[in-house]
Design brief:
Oligomer: single chain
Radius of gyration: 50 Å
Structural class: alpha+beta
Strand content: 15-25%
Helix content: 40-55%
Length: about 750
């Protein structure tokens, strides 16, 4: 009512004053409005300028979470003005005159000032890539998705339109890992897209399946085994042009080919062999992972000999725990960790029980600088997921593995294969517990795992010193024994010939052992030394076998016939020569190891020596038992009046003499390898290092006829005369081979 009343008074006043008065008042009112308009315009400009300055200064901190906290005032009224009912009311103007509207408001027909919606009316200053958002007493601009203005997505506009422009956000540059592993990110206007990198196929929106292009198959120029491995795995790798079906790429066919590949593995020396194992494990794992992702279901496969087991378990990220049960291992992992950022949780493993020999002598990275050695006592297990990066897991994977050896838990180590160092490493793995023949390990990354056992090394300075002193003494005694056997006329015969050549073989073998066993600085020299040692020690055992044969003929055979010397030489030196030639032709790389110039354990090459030795020792042990038995019977029948104590002493000395000449001391070597306890190690070292001393004492010094000749030689040497041999002595010596050897006749 007040508004209408004021309007009526205003009209009546105009009518009364007439045209002139009306004109005058109108000009006055126009001037007043013009003055207010100028004030308003300047105020709005100052307000917008202030708003622009504030936006520019605040930067990212001006980005507000909601429009309620974002204030974009249209203008700030001068201090001399106030507002009344959305109008500007200057203090120096009467209230009853027409008043201008506040900034952001417009006059309606009824004279009221109502708020202007700049967004709806299209009078805003927002950019084409921004949305106008109306708020009380103003509006603000919000950049569309994928755009921003100076790191802002919401801002108050300025009068300068180019400052209100929203530009494209490069998501690929700002967030390098936005697409995930094996993806290529490509920025687009207002967005981005992700495509699989070359060599990967998109399966379930993840790029982990490796693929090959049909046009990229070229002739392999790598090392032969690497080429064979690549060609084999490429046959089971999907094509990038079109992912093939699981029927064409079957795991059964893959396992069959994998068996042939491992059987044809080129062993070589340790360095070459370990260079090949890593790519073999990696390529097989990737191929099996591809086949599992293509199938996207739980799988279980064995090779023909049940030595390789493939297990795959699938689920979703909310399954709790994924579990796999292989032949000799059990694996568990949290399903959320297995799924990663994808919805598919896939856990798989490949359990190898047939590649232990390929990893022999592989070092433990943390103990590489020490002399400790380790033995692989579990299958090798490659574990993989359906995601790309498994170098750091949110939750550790748990592996329960069967072990083949028993021992102190402190000697076992959970390890993973380090391809960069070509060795095992305990980093990221810890042993939790041991339960009888099982070990439980937790690892924070995925690769190929195993369990190593520390081998107790008895190769101490004491053993080295004993070996060097013992062999030195044996060399001296063997020289004396050879002189005795060659020049002592009273013991000439077939057995004397055998003893002489046995001592010659041992003499050269011991000398070469002392001088060249550690000549590993040159591979060729080390191989020659190993081959010569192999030949000399095989010769020694062949002469020991001939000694056993001669004893058997003396005790059992009725007709006393001689073994001709040329046959003895053919067997004693010819047999080792044949074995050496065959061994070198089959695997000449087996001569020489990392530490010593001896036969390698690779491909079972050590059995080129151990095989003949085992046969000879077993046969000689039987002959030794027969010798002692026959000798005991003969002594009892021929010397009934001889004292029992004397007979026992004679039998014992004779038995020991035969034991050392038949290689009985090597029995301790077999006990040492089966259970490496200090007793057997030291017993084997002492007895075999002093074998020359044993031969000289038992077959020279304790032989009566030899002692008699020693006495004769000493007397002749003292008188500077040649020793004199009686005719009876010479005649009897030629007939010793046809007489049964009693304790008295044998000279012991």
């Amino acid at each position: 009512m007040l508004r209408f009343w004021n309007a009526g008074i205003f009209l009546i006043t105009l009518l009364i004053n007439g045209l002139q008065s009306t004109t005058s008042n109108t000009l006055s009112s126009t001037a007043s409005q013009t003055t207010v308009s100028k004030i308003l315009k300047n105020t709005v400009s100052a307000s917008l300028s202030t708003s622009s300055t504030n936006v520019g200064n605040t930067g990212v901190s001006s980005t507000l979470e909601s429009h309620q906290s974002l204030k974009c005032p249209k203008a700030t009224l001068p201090p001399t003005t106030t507002h009344c009912n959305n109008h500007i009311c200057p203090e120096d103007q009467p209230y009853n005159e027409p008043l201008p509207c506040k900034p952001g408001y417009k006059r309606e027909k009824d004279g009221d000032c109502v708020e202007v919606n700049e967004c709806r009316e299209g009078i805003h200053l927002c950019d084409a890539y921004a949305e106008c958002r109306n708020i009380h007493s103003g509006y603000y601009c919000e950049c569309k998705k994928g755009y921003q203005r100076e790191n802002l997505t919401k801002f108050c506009p300025t009068e300068v339109k180019k400052l209100n422009k929203c530009t494209d956000v490069n998501e690929c540059w700002n967030s390098p890992g936005i697409c995930g592993s094996n993806f290529i990110c490509r920025n687009t206007e207002g967005s981005y897209n992700c495509t699989c990198d070359d060599g990967f196929t998109n399966i379930s929106n993840i790029c982990v399946v490796k693929c090959i292009y049909s046009t990229s198959k070229e002739k392999c120029v790598d090392e032969p085994f690497q080429c064979k491995l690549k060609n084999f795995t490429d046959n089971f790798t999907p094509l990038c042009e079109a992912v093939p079906s699981q029927q064409r790429l079957s795991m059964e066919e893959f396992l069959k080919g994998l068996d042939d590949l491992i059987d044809g593995f080129s062993y070589g020396n340790k360095t070459d062999r370990l260079q090949k194992v890593g790519p073999l494990l990696n390529r097989v794992e990737v191929t099996i992972q591809n086949l599992a992702l293509l199938a996207q279901r739980s799988l279980s496969h064995f090779n023909q000999n049940k030595t390789i087991n493939i297990q795959v378990s699938t689920g979703t990220s909310d399954n709790g725990t994924l579990s796999l049960q292989a032949t000799k291992s059990n694996i568990q992992l949290d399903s959320r960790t297995a799924a990663g950022n994808t919805g598919l949780a896939l856990l798989g493993c490949i359990e190898y029980n047939n590649i232990t020999h390929l990893l022999e002598e592989a070092d433990l990275l943390e103990e590489k600088s020490t002399n400790k050695s380790f033995k692989l006592v579990s299958p090798v297990i490659s574990v993989f997921l359906g995601i790309g990066n498994t170098s750091s897991l949110q939750q550790p994977v748990s592996l329960r593995v069967n072990i083949t050896e028993q021992g102190d838990s402190r000697n076992f180590t959970c390890v993973s294969w380090s391809e960069s160092n070509k060795s095992w490493s305990s980093r990221g793995c810890v042993m939790l517990k041991r339960d009888n023949s099982e070990l439980t390990c937790n690892c924070t990354h995925l690769t190929s795992f195993a369990v190593l056992m520390l081998l107790h090394e008895y190769e101490t300075w004491a053993l080295t010193l004993i070996t060097q002193i013992g062999l030195s003494i044996s060399i001296l005694c063997l020289v004396l024994a050879i002189i005795t056997f060659c020049f002592c006329r009273s013991i000439r015969g077939t057995r004397n010939t055998i003893h002489t050549h046995l001592c010659i073989s041992l003499l050269f073998g011991n000398c070469l052992f002392l001088l060249g066993i550690t000549a590993v600085w040159n591979q060729v020299v080390c191989g020659i030394v190993a081959a010569l040692l192999h030949a000399l020690y095989l010769c020694s055992f062949c002469w020991m076998a001939l000694e056993g044969l001669e004893l058997y003929r003396m005790l059992v055979t009725v007709f006393k016939t001689h073994l001709k010397k040329r046959y003895l030489l053919a067997v004693g030196y010819g047999t080792p020569a044949v074995i050496i030639i065959i061994s070198a032709a089959i695997y000449h790389q087996g001569y020489g190891t990392k530490k010593y110039c001896w036969l390698s354990l690779e491909k079972g090459f050590i059995w080129a020596f151990m095989g003949p030795v085992c046969v000879i020792i077993l046969v000689n042990c039987g002959i030794f038992v027969l010798t002692v038995w026959k000798l005991a019977e003969k002594m009892s029948s021929l010397s009934p009046d001889q004292g029992k104590l004397k007979r026992i002493r004679t039998l014992t000395v004779t038995s020991l003499a035969q034991l050392c000449i038949l290689g009985g001391c090597w029995v301790f070597g077999f006990f040492m390898f089966s259970s490496a306890t200090p007793f057997f190690v030291y017993a084997f070292t002492i007895l075999n290092a002093l074998q020359g001393l044993q031969i000289f004492c038992l077959h020279c010094l304790m032989h009566k006829k030899v002692r008699a000749e020693y006495k004769m030689w000493l007397c002749a040497l003292a008188h500077f005369k040649a020793p004199v041999y009686s005719e009876f002595s010479n005649t009897s010596n030629t007939q010793t081979h046809s007489k049964a050897k009693t304790g008295k006749e044998s000279g012991l």
